[in-house]
Specification:
- The chain contains 9 helices and 12 strands.
- By secondary structure, the protein is of the alpha/beta class.
- Helix 6 links the parallel strand 7 and strand 8.
- The longest helix has 21 residues.
- The protein is globular, with a radius of gyration of 20 Å.
């Protein structure tokens, strides 16, 4: 990651610093939104220590950060289990507000497992959350369809059901509160970014620039994506990309990212270089 980020809004995660004895940033952001890492941990079956998350957050003192929450993720939970996880999330919101040095920086997360719980949980946040912004987390509707805004969106074609759930949640928030709404993981393409704002979100973020890089893809401002992997790659039904020779990717000649200005060959050698390139061309945080 570039060290000079004073003009950037950066999204980072406590997971990146969880095992560091003295957590510190290796870059200087304009604003930093520090995710608590709960969703990534839940996907890996790892349980985070609340005090350790606080220690990381207080060491880095980001502009915004999320109290440790308990998302439903992609695992199957019963309604009582989801209720318990929401109660744990509520307990942490109150604890973070009363017992940490993070006042004025907190962005609590909303989770819900039905339309009724959505209304009730928004009401609880309106009465108890000392914050200007809340983040939209795990949602489950009455049919059992699950949505988690940090992991359930494709780069280009979000499910219609997902859009309905996000729209309903934002509408419920705006009807009875004056909270701003942050959508986690909803900015993976320009289309998704515009859709988030159309639905009523105030901000969003995405790790799409890193995910595409890990799959061997680079993003070009005017002509879309190019796959630089060594073998053909399949990305979704009917979408196969073949490796592009360096001489074929002429658009890189006009790219102003640090990698292309220094050594374009690095794009073919590692995902980190591709991520730095993609960051310039994808809306990773707004």
């Amino acid at each position: 990651m570039r060290s000079d980020r004073q003009s950037d809004y950066v999204m980072d995660s406590c997971i990146s610093y969880y095992d560091d004895e003295t957590p510190s940033l290796q870059y200087n952001p304009g604003e930093l939104f520090l995710d608590n890492g709960a969703f990534s941990a839940s996907m890996s079956g790892v349980e985070l220590d609340a005090d350790r998350i606080i220690a990381v957050q207080e060491a880095l003192m980001p502009t915004f950060t999320i109290p440790l929450d308990y998302p439903f993720g992609r695992h199957t939970f019963s309604i009582p289990q989801m209720q318990r996880r929401w109660n744990q999330t509520r307990t942490n919101i109150l604890y973070w507000q009363s017992s940490t040095r993070l006042g004025g920086r907190l962005v609590p997360t909303l989770h819900a497992w039905s339309k009724r719980s959505l209304v009730d949980n928004v009401d609880w946040l309106s009465r108890n959350a000392d914050a200007d912004t809340i983040a939209l987390g795990s949602l489950i509707d009455g049919t059992g369809f699950t949505m988690d805004s940090r992991g359930y969106f494709g780069d280009r074609q979000p499910k219609e059901h997902t859009i309905d759930m996000v729209s309903n949640a934002i509408e419920a928030i705006h009807e009875s509160t004056d909270f701003n709404v942050h959508l986690m993981g909803f900015g993976s393409s320009p289309m998704m970014l515009h859709l988030a704002y159309f639905l009523g979100a105030n901000s969003t973020d995405s790790s799409g620039h890193r995910r595409k890089a890990a799959y061997g893809k680079i993003v070009l401002q005017s002509t879309g994506e190019r796959y630089l992997g060594g073998d053909p790659g399949v990305f979704g039904k009917g979408m196969e990309l073949t490796s592009k020779r360096k001489s074929d990717v002429m658009e890189l000649e006009t790219c102003s990212c640090d990698i292309c200005l220094t050594n374009k060959d690095l794009l073919w050698q590692g995902w980190k270089a591709r991520a730095l390139h993609n960051e310039l061309h994808l809306p990773h945080l707004r």
